[in-house]
């Protein structure tokens, strides 16, 4: 890597359908020809929908027959509820969620008993395998590829798990995205996992604690959940929205705080010279008006607008560098 080139790790926060924004950001960043002269992408990380975006970006860069932008745009175009049965299912999920938050009683159905949960699992895996040839991944690994960190949490032990690039499988990605009330716990190597939102959303500090690769000069966090709100929520729906945002940000803020502490220790001379300062930049999702339930929205127009927002945010970020 030339001395004037910055090493960059990109972290993708989870957020359901809102991570179509993340896909747009990554599409524009990774297709910018001038960026390649300035930075070297050394790692990706992601959780839930962010894990899917990180995977597609990593795979598109490493596979000679694909490009990240192509995979990201194709995946999210197919993720949209285009068929009548998809549109009906999407509407039912959104309105069911809204009515339940308004206090309308619904029978509790475990994902272990729900045909919809089995269908969702099958469709998630089908879509992943349609865009990523997981059997080809070992042949892409020669030690020069960026790191890939996918977060999930062990249901029984409460410990987080990072799936690395040499451990990739459809089930590993599903484990990171397995929202407990939507999916069954996902078995991988005899352990059971839920959505990585509980543990690392997304992995950040692992970029500087992983001794296999040098610390990146910069970490770019593609952030979905807003930090601040202008007023206290009072409706049941608004309270649930804010609770979700705070939970999603808690782990991320902890990860960023750790990196900042390491920077402070470096500047104070407490750490060996092999540790280097790491700047953190955020690319923020600029639609705080959207409520939590829109994270389940898959209408084509909605996803296309989020993808375009991501492209615009990436352009603004690049212009500001």
From TrEMBL:
The keyword Secreted does not apply. Residues 10-208 form the PNPLA domain. The keyword Lipid metabolism applies. GO terms for biological process: lipid metabolic process. It comes from the Archaea. InterPro entries: Acyl_Trfase/lysoPLipase, PNPLA_dom. This is NTE family protein.
């Amino acid at each position: 890597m030339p001395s004037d080139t910055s090493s960059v790790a990109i972290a993708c926060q989870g957020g359901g359908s809102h991570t179509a924004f993340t896909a747009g950001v990554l599409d524009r960043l990774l297709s910018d020809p001038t960026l390649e002269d300035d930075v070297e992408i050394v790692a990706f990380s992601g959780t839930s929908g962010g894990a899917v975006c990180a995977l597609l970006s990593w795979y598109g860069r490493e596979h000679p027959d694909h490009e990240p932008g192509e995979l990201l745009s194709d995946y999210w175009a197919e993720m949209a509820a285009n068929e009548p049965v998809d549109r009906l299912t999407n509407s039912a999920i959104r309105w069911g969620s809204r009515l339940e938050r308004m206090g309308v009683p619904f029978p509790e159905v475990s994902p272990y008993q729900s045909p919809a949960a089995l269908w969702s699992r099958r469709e998630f895996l089908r879509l992943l395998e349609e865009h990523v040839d997981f059997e080809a991944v070992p042949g892409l690994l020669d030690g020069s590829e960026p790191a890939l960190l996918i977060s999930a949490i062990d249901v029984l032990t409460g410990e987080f798990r990072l799936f690395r690039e040499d451990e990739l499988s459809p089930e590993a990605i599903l484990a990171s995205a397995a929202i407990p009330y939507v999916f069954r716990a996902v078995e991988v190597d005899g352990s059971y996992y839920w959505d990585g939102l509980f543990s690392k959303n997304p992995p950040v500090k692992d970029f500087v604690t992983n001794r296999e690769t040098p610390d990146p000069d910069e970490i770019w966090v593609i952030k979905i959940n807003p930090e601040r709100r202008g007023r206290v929520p009072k409706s049941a729906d608004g309270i649930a929205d804010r609770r979700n945002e705070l939970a999603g940000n808690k782990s991320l803020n902890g990860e960023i705080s750790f990196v900042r502490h390491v920077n402070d220790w470096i500047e104070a001379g407490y750490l060996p010279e092999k540790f280097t300062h790491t700047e953190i930049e955020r690319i923020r999702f600029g639609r705080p008006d959207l409520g939590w339930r829109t994270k389940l929205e898959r209408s084509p127009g909605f996803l296309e607008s989020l993808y375009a927002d991501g492209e615009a945010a990436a352009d603004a970020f690049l212009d500001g560098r």
